[in-house]
Amino acid sequence: MGIINRRFGARAALVIACLGTALWSLPASAQSTLEAVKKRDQLVCGTNGQLPGFSLVDDKGNWQGLDVDLCRAIAAAVLGDAKKVKFVPLSAQQRFQALAAGDVDVLARNSTVTLQRDAGARVKFAAINYFDGQGFAVANKFKMKTLASLSGGTVCFTRGTTHEANMVNWFRARVLRVTPQGYDTSDAMYDAFLASRCAGVTQDAAALAATLARRGKAADYTILPEIISKEPLGPYVRGGDEAWLEVVRWSHYAMIEAEERGIDRANVDGERRSHDPETKLFLGTAPGNGKALGLDEAWAYDIVKQVGNYGESFERNLGARSPLKLPRGVNALWTQGGQMYSPPLR
Question: pLDDT category, 31, cuts 50, 70, 90?
Answer without folding.
Answer: low
